[in-house]
Structure formats: C-alpha cells, structure tokens
Amino acid sequence: MSSFRRVLRTLRSSILQAIPTAIIIVILNFILLQMAPGDVVDVLAAESGAATLEGMTEMRERFGLNAPVVEQLISYLGRLAHLDLGTSARFGVPVSELIAQRLPGTLLLMVLALSTAVLIGIVLGAIMSAFAGRLPDRVLSVLSLLFYSIPNFWIGLMLIVLFSVKLGWLPSGGSGSIGMGLTGWDLIVDKARYLVLPAASLALYYVAIYGRLTRAAMLEVRSQDYVRTARAKGLPPIVVTVHHILRNALIPITTMAGMHVGAMLGGAVVVETVFSLPGLGRLAFESVLGRDLQVLLGILLLSSFLVIIMNALIDLLHAFLDPKIGAH
To answer: 180: which of 15, 50, 98, 327 is 20 to 30 A away, CA to CA?
Structure first.
C-alpha cells in the first residue's frame, strides 16, 4: 500500500473516531460545569454590592440559568449546531470574539514551547543514548530530572528574577511594548522578546520528558536487527542514526507530543498568569473566578478540538513514518 493510501485510510479512521468523541466531550463539559457551585449572577451581585433578590432572579431568567439542566443543554447544543458559542454574561460580547482575541497568543506560545521542547529533547536524548552509562549521559540525566521535578510556575519566577530583575535582558511580563508605534521587523522582535521567558518556562519541563524518552527509544531501536544489518552494509554512522534509529524512535516521541497539547493548554493558564499574557489560559482563569459558564464552555470546547486535531495529525505522521501503521 502506498504512503498516500495509508495516510488517507488513517485520516478516515481519525475522523470517524473524532465525531463521537467531540459529542461526548461537549456533553460532559456542560454537565460538569453545571455541577460547580455558584453562577455568574452570584459573582456579579457580590461585585456590585447592591443587588437585590428580585434583580438576581431577573438576571438568571435573562441568562437562562433558571431553566432545567436538560433544557439548558438542549439549548446549548442547538446554538452549537449553528456555530454559536453564546454570549459572555460578564463582558456582554460573543464568546467567539473573546476567544478569537486571545487564541493567537496562546497558540503561538504553545507552538514555540512544544517545538522547542521536542527539538532540544531529541538532541539531548540522542547525546545521552550515544554516551549511555558515561559521564555526559549521567550529567544530562540529572539535569533532566531536575527540570522535571520543578513546577513551571517556579521556573517562570526564577527566569524573571534572573533575566529581568538581575540582568535586565528581557521584559518580565506583558505581550509587547506600549506606545512605541513599532511596525514590521521591529514589531516582530519586540513580540519575540516578550515570549522568550514564557515559552522557556513552559518548555523546560517537557524538555526533560522528551530527552529521557528519546534516550530510551533510541537505545531500544539501536538493538534491533535491521540496525545491525545497516551497519554491516557499511552505511555511515550518521545515516544509520538518522534514517534507521531516529526515524523509528520518533513514533513514541510524537505520540507523547500529541498527548501534551492538552497538558500545555493547562500549563498556559499558570504561565500566562505569571507573565501577565492576555491569552486563552488567562481568560479561562478569569472565567473560572467569574463563573462565566459560556466562556468556559467555549474554551473547553476549543481546547478539546485542538487536542483531537493534534492527535489526528500525529496519527497521519505515524502512518507516514511506519508503513505498518494504517495498512489495515
């Protein structure tokens, strides 16, 4: 079977699995959030300090919070069928607009952090596997274990202390310089400076995971018969390492990367709060505090779809890397 046909078959299987998964996720998100104590009316009443019982009842009726849970769920599913995520009770604007404003920053942060973690982790893992049992392997293993055991919010705070407070090289928070009127390349450089520390804070924890995973995968693949055959044919060591060992070792690494998309969305909540980034994670945190159910449902729905799409892409990559995957 050709690579193209394998990829198409894998894509069809991924879509068939994604549809019921998405429906179950939507319903579970709604039910779980309904079980949480309090609602947005309680928060708005506490903030105003002058709300009456009649006014709170009127607000709940306006927001549809007095209806039975089943009726609210049916109404929510009906809006989703028309691609309507609802309106934020706190901000009074469509949820889709709020998410569209915050999503690009979070996606950029996640892409930078995940790609950095995977690339550095693969390089470190390859070095550790090449020097297995020797000093470089032991030193890098200890460093990996150190970063793995430290929470990313603490790493973020230490990065701020070192690179912002002590050295003054990078900004400590925010998403860009205010009032500078930057355009073009200067704007890109300015935005990049504000993303270095958040991306590093989010990536360092995962560098340790990918480094140790790459080391274990490459050591396992190195002992396979086809690797010994390639060496016996007189192929250069770099060709054996890249084409035969690393290519097959990438399958568990990419699988783990797909699983980490959801975890990085959760980590973005902490990182964006520490570095004052106006992203999707910080919006989720603010929505939890404000009990803004519609915004939370929109964020959870989008996050679930991102994880599903990422895992489908990982399946397609596996079908390309390994001919045995997707052949049946």
So the answer is: 98
- DSSP characters for 13-37? HHHHHHHHHHHHHHHHHHHHHHTSS
Q: Where are the domains of the chain?
A: 3-321
pLDDT reading at 171 higher than 60? yes
Q: Are 281 and 269 in contact (CB under 8 A)?
A: yes
- Tell me which CATH homologous superfamily contains domain 3-321: MetI-like (1.10.3720.10)
108 class by beta-carbon count within 10 Å (0-12 exposed, 13-18 middle, 19+ buried): middle
- Is residue 4 over pLDDT 70? no
User: Poorest-confidence range of 18-32, 167-181, 279-293?
Assistant: 167-181
What are phi and psi for residue 72, nearest 5 degrees? Answer: -65, -40
3-state secondary structure of 66: coil
Alpha carbon 267 to its chain's center: 8
Q: Whole-model pTM?
A: 0.75
C-alpha closest to that of 317 among 304, 308, 326: 326
Average pLDDT, the chain: 78
CB of 20 within 8 A of CB of 268? no
Choose among 248, 274, 287: nearest CA to 40.
Answer: 287
> What's the angle, vertex CA 182, arms to CA 179 and CA 183, rounded to 5?
145
The model's confidence at residue 1, banded by pLDDT at 50, 70 and 90, is: very low
Helical spans, DSSP H, in the chain: 3-34, 40-48, 53-63, 69-81, 95-130, 135-148, 152-159, 184-222, 225-232, 237-239, 247-274, 280-290, 293-321
Please state which of the ranges 8-17, 65-74, 108-117 shows the lowest mean pLDDT.
8-17
Q: Look at residues 145, 110, 109, 108 and name the one whose alpha carbon lies nearest to residue 124.
A: 145
Using alpha carbons, list the distances in angstroms from residue 158 to 23, 112, 165, 292. 41, 20, 10, 32
Which residue in 148, 102, 6, 107 sits closest to 298, CA to CA? 102
